[in-house]
Amino acid sequence: MTNQQCGTSRIAGCQFTLYPMSDNFVDIILSALDEVDSTKVWKDTDDVTTCVRGKMVHVFDVTKAIFLHAAKTGEHVAMSGTFSIGCPGDNEADVYMAETDEPMNLEKSQTVDQQAGCKFSLYPLGREDYMDKIYEQIDLSKARGVEVSASHYMTRLDGDVKDIFNAMEESFEAVQDKVSHTTMTFTISANSPSNK
């Protein structure tokens, strides 16, 4: 095994699992995966997760669009996953880093109004001042059109799905600018009967 330097790769990725709470879960998952334009990311789906990799803008675009497509069915849908950038074990062999920055799903996603709740945690790796970086982003989230509240080990965001993903993306981007290897875990839920 070679000793790899952290933070040499600017490949972003997200490994996530979609959970429709419905008897029709297979159709909801497959439809969401098929409906979303993933031509600007590398994508692999198995029996546990879906992984998308490429430029950060496209990884967030595809992940958000898949969740929105599943949630617009009106069924209770949750998604849990991890975003990562700067992983020392990542390489450019199977990603689309030469793609333009224009998101392929933005226009279609803008037409879907969907409320959700989300909890996320940022992990700036290899920094002793990691809490300072996290607190900076929690403060910034308050101005992004989402309701922010504290939760054990995570920050909670409530609002429109598009605003939630935008807040997470902006926080993730700001931290990875300063901390080369950054990960972020999240769980988002829409149409939960607990809210009624």
List the helices and strands and how they pair.
Elements: E1 12-20, H1 25-35, E2 42-45, E3 50-54, H2 56-71, E4 77-85, H3 106-110, E5 115-124, H4 130-141, E6 147-151, E7 154-160, H5 161-178, E8 182-190
Antiparallel strand pairs: 1-3, 1-4, 2-3, 4-8, 5-7, 5-8, 6-7
Give the C-alpha Rg: 16 Å
Trace the largest sheet across and list its strands: 2-3-1-4-8-5-7-6
Give me the count of strands.
Answer: 8
Order of helices and strands: EHEEHEHEHEEHE
- Which structural class is indicated by helix and strand composition? alpha+beta
Largest beta-sheet details: 8 strands, antiparallel
Q: Termini, distance in Å?
A: 53 Å
What's the helix count? Answer: 5
Principal-axis shape equals globular
Strand content range:
25-35%
Poorly predicted parts: 1-7
Helix content: 25-40%
Mean pLDDT: 87
Structure, described:
With 196 residues, the protein is α+β, with helices and mostly antiparallel strands. It contains five helices and eight strands. It is globular and about 45 Å long.
Brief account:
The chain has 196 residues and is an alpha+beta fold. It has helices spanning 25-35, 56-71, 106-110, 130-141, 161-178; strands at residues 12-20, 42-45, 50-54, 77-85, 115-124, 147-151, 154-160, 182-190.
